[in-house]
Write a structure and sequence with these properties.
binds flavin-adenine dinucleotide; five-stranded parallel beta sheet; FAD/NAD(P)-binding domain; Pyr_nucl-diS_OxRdtase_dimer; seven-stranded mixed beta sheet; alpha/beta; binds nicotinamide-adenine-dinucleotide; NADP; Enolase-like, domain 1; 3 domains
């Protein structure tokens, strides 16, 4: 077959989407009727649904219940020690999520206008893809929504996950057959903190290894320190410590460490690697498609989320600065709109990403939620700002909670525009939202605090009081 005849035989689609996570939500009514292909190398539905946000949060909930039951003694209520039924906890989560993933896959498989290729895609030319099944595709438009992957550690024994021998990443640890007696969690970031909380609350003896001076170290310092103190009350936290090698013998991992205490080691049946995630741009042969990459593997995009290759867009973890699902979802909405504009199906203009504050939450114990710069970052940038710190325990609902650790820090410019907020404590992920709203829409602190009623004596009074505590705000 000559080249031309081969090209004629090659499937051609109006639109190819690489990745079925946030990429799967692109297909809005404006794009109906297009001949679309979705290429998915892994489990349909991507990280958030199968191995990320949703299963972790569904596991955090029973863990929170265990911690709350133990804590109830301070309120005069004593429970018997909990009986943790791990298979029931695990199967509640994946009984629901696996069915959603399979339902989504079946829907796309049977949808007339959509072809689902279960394969790994890479570029072999402009608008041309080669699949791990041997097929090649061409497309008028391509969306790269290929996500990111968990990293191993460049340390002997810890380079690659090996779930069969108990060396996991977040991709596999949530599906353990049974709870191990001991677990070493390597890392002090989002994944490590959430899953150390889950497994330690459920009765596993967790040792968490963090090379830095605190857990969650990119957070506001007071919050990182307080989070670290609380975590250390629940499980063994080793700071300023790094693994130097690991060996597996008779079903037990011996992880050698070096740090403040000199060389030492820790043993466990399960090791969780939680040392960051790398964008999958480096596995796409991006250059062959004309896509530029940042040094960290992210696909380069402009404000309209176009890559450097004509007709190719990218979104989510593979290109975004923040590896967060609400960011990927927002970007999917932008790309869907911009595709529709490009196709003449929707009036322009194209939508652009903007500099709205990006909040996040860590669903550990306690919860942490944050957006905007830390005081260290504001100081380093020479930005003028004022700060208020409100303890949860100094509000009426905080008395009800007997809270001793929660706090909310707000940074604002001297005129009262909210720049950042950092919160630790019960429901921090929800509590911070009015501040995200105020910062996003430019509402000044005093207007937010005094321009509305705050339900008394709700936890939200923490926000009201923090706003009123900003220097220059009259009560
Ligand atoms: C344990 C954990 C907990 C998390 N919790 C939260 C949270 O609470 N809140 C939050 O906002 N974020 C959370 N995140 C981050 C969030 O999951 C991601 O930001 C989000 O899922 C990214 O979506 P995406 O569509 O960019 O990528 P993904 O959902 O990862 O989708 C990419 C898909 O592309 C496929 N793929 C990759 N390369 C190719 C290829 N070459 N060919 C074919 N297919 C390919 C992959 O198999 C994958 O299915 C969490 C992440 C983890 C790991
Ligand atoms: N609740 C949420 O929103 C949520 C939850 C989980 C993950 N995520 C997203 O996924 C991303 C990845 O999460 P993560 O926890 O894997 O990454 P992370 O960047 O949050 O934390 C990585 C941790 O690994 C440590 N580390 C990195 N390299 C190391 C090395 N060589 N030796 C020892 N320690 C090392 C770092 O010090 C850090 O503590 C997050 O940044 C976040 O965007 C979000």
């Amino acid at each position: 077959m000559d080249d031309h005849a081969y090209a004629d035989a090659m499937p051609h689609h109006d639109l190819v989407i690489i990745g079925s996570g946030s990429g799967n939500s692109l297909l809005t009514p404006e794009l109906a009727g297009l001949d679309v292909a979705i290429v998915e190398a892994g489990t349909f539905g991507g990280t958030c649904l199968n191995v990320g946000c949703i299963p972790t949060k569904m596991l955090v909930l029973p863990a929170d219940r265990v911690v709350a039951a133990a804590d109830a003694a301070r309120l005069g209520v004593a429970f018997d020690p909990p009986r943790v039924d791990w298979p029931a906890i695990r199967d509640r989560v994946f009984g629901r999520l696996d069915a959603i993933s399979e339902g989504g896959r079946a829907y796309r498989q049977h949808q007339q206008s959509t072809t689902l290729y279960e394969a790994h895609a890479r570029f072999v030319g402009p608008s041309r893809l080669s699949l791990s099944t041997g097929e090649q595709l061409t497309a008028d438009r391509i969306v790269v929504a290929a996500g990111s992957r968990a990293l191993g550690l460049d340390v002997e024994g810890l380079r690659e996950p090996d779930p069969a021998r108990g060396l996991h990443t977040s991709d596999t640890v949530m599906r353990l057959g049974s709870l191990p007696p001991r677990m070493v969690v390597i890392g002090g970031g989002f994944v490590a903190c959430e899953l150390a909380h889950v497994f330690s609350a459920l009765g596993v003896a967790v040792t968490q290894i963090q090379r830095g001076p605190s857990l969650l170290r990119h957070h506001e310092e007071v919050i990182a320190q307080r989070y670290t103190q609380v975590a250390a009350n629940h499980h063994d936290v080793r700071l300023r410590t790094s693994p130097t090698s690991a060996v597996h013998e008779d079903g037990v991992w011996r992880v050698h460490l070096d740090g403040d205490d000199g060389p030492t080691h820790v043993e466990a049946e399960v090791v969780l690697l939680a040392v960051g995630r790398r964008p999958n741009g480096d596995r796409l042969d991006a250059a062959s498609g004309g896509l530029d990459l940042h040094p960290d593997g992210r696909v380069v995009v402009d404000a309209e989320l176009r890559t450097t290759a004509p007709g190719v867009w990218a979104l989510g973890d593979v290109s975004a600065e923040h590896q967060l699902k609400h960011v990927a979802n927002h970007e999917a909405r932008i790309v869907a709109h911009n595709l529709a504009v490009d196709l003449g199906r929707t009036a322009g203009p194209s939508r652009r990403t903007d500099d709205r504050p990006v909040p996040h939450a860590v669903f550990g114990h306690p919860q942490v939620a944050s957006f905007g710069a830390t005081s260290a970052e504001l100081d380093a940038a020479g930005t003028p700002y004022v700060t208020a710190t409100q303890r949860v325990g100094d509000t009426a609902y905080g008395w009800a909670l007997e809270d001793t650790t929660g706090l909310l820090v707000i940074h604002a410019d001297p005129a009262g525009q909210i720049l950042a907020a950092h919160c630790l404590g019960p429901h921090a992920s929800t509590l911070i939202q009015p501040l995200v709203q105020a910062a996003t829409f430019g509402q000044p602190a005093h207007e937010v605090a005094r321009g509305q009623y705050w339900i008394h004596p709700a936890l939200a009074e923490v926000v009201e009081n923090a706003l009123l505590g900003l220097p220059g705000q009259s009560r």
